[in-house]
Give the backbone structure.
Amino acid sequence: MVHEQAIIDFNNTEDPKLRNQLYKEVIGPVLDEMVDKIVYTYKFTTLPNIDYLKEECKIWLITIIDKYNPEKAAAFSYFSVITKNWFIHKVKVQQKRNKREIDINNIS
């Protein structure tokens, strides 16, 4: 409830200092942990540059945080579904790239 309330407060304020404080103290660490758990639970660790992708995903979550509606779902169930779908998309893009590209060392 603390984290969900922090997200609601984050969305309801325009004060940059308060938003920054809420993100640094409450929202950011929880998003970091959530993204890490989803990456390891669903074995997205096979993606190249996974650390970069995790940071990119966190940035994406912050850009869409204002779309969260507390009346429809709990905050972190909403964000975990978005995170999982984001990584699934990245896996599909990587698989498509792997089918198209051939390593020069493997050409016979």
